Model the fold of this input.
Amino acid sequence: MSEDASPRKELAAVKGTRDILPGEVEKWQALERLARETFESYGYRELRAPIFEVTELFEKGTGSTSDIVTKEMYTFTDKGGRSLTLRPEYTPSVVRAIVEHRLDLQPEPMRYYYMGPMFRYDKPQKGRYRQFHQVDIEVFGEKDAALDAEIIEMADALLRKLGVNGTETLVNSVGCRACRPAYSAALREAAGKRRSELCPDCQRKAETNPLRIFDCKVEACRAVAAAFPLIQDFLCAECKDHFAKLLGLLALYRLPYHVDPRLVRGLDYYTKTTFEIVSSHLGAQNAILGGGRYDDMMKDFGGPDICGIGFAMGIERALAAAEIALPARRALYLAALGEEAGKAGLELARFFRASGVECLVEFKDRGMKAHFGRANKLKAAWVLIVGEDELKKGRFGLKDMATGGQVDGTREELLEFLRKN
Ligand code: HAM
Done:
């Protein structure tokens, strides 16, 4: 610490990263708990993969023409000379884990969820960080569009539990390997005609993967892209049927949606369904969650030909839009008077803590008044008074800090009382 007690600038948290402090962290815990409960009620199991992977996994999975791979990865060479990358997203890691552990031998569909940090070297702004956190779900082995609808319904259910309102669900189909080449060719042709109006990045994308032009944030490029042909006119019969079934089921769930034919999402792996849920409360970075189907990734990784679908929700963004009511903390402050009572107090604290009561013990020898001052500062709900007299009788006074009321009883009676209150 420097003299003015602010941290030295060079030791401050890295740009685009944040500390999540007590006071805020309780909301994270509540979100994580609600996500877990929701996913498990749909049959999902948690799968935890490492934070870094070989770089090639993301080049192959996320895609070599995506902005994430071309511009945003935290890639480094380790002491063994391997190129490693801090995961920018979770999907390729799950697919790798399934292939590696032959989880595909389990009954289908396989449903997994995960929560943790992701890393992207993007320009930090409100709602966009370099270390951010995702809640992610992935399902494998179910081709039916009923699953696409179910995961959108599940995402919606989670957002309702989080008290997120004012959202819009955007859906699209980006076709498959059978129908997309014709669409890409049409886009390439359209982009070629207006090449000079596109930014240098999009001029390059027009050659490598014209679909990626839709990801560009430059206003002039967006205006050009608005006149591009639409994917819906190029979908093959299978993709068309799949999309129609999805929309029918969303209607059945009474989930309002908006078809956005330019929703290609920034990742190269999507096939058929893509979707996002956006919030009107979040400003520029308004996507709370996004996902889609990726039926070729596992096969492309050298694994079995098993289709996949999933979505990831940004925790920071979900919390910015959420209304989570937290239960008040109700801590018990143990006020021991004198040395003997101090020792007995340690055992009493152990008793209450074993039953799940949050118990604050003061190690310093203090008088009654100082104890109450301290309990007030720590915002304790109750003060348990332990003096020589109390010890002799085995009965203690418990004071309610909000009302000033007091009850007396044995430790068992007081525990019962705390449980009821
Ligand atoms: P994504 O759209 O790149 O998809 O990210 C999903 C969500 O993560 C976004 O909607 C947003 O809420 C949050 N997010 C992304 N980047 C940032 C950032 N820099 N700062 C804060 N929040 C951010 C994926 O990652 C895919 N893996 C989703 C998926 C799963 N598709 C299939 N399965």
Remarks:
- The mean pLDDT is 95.
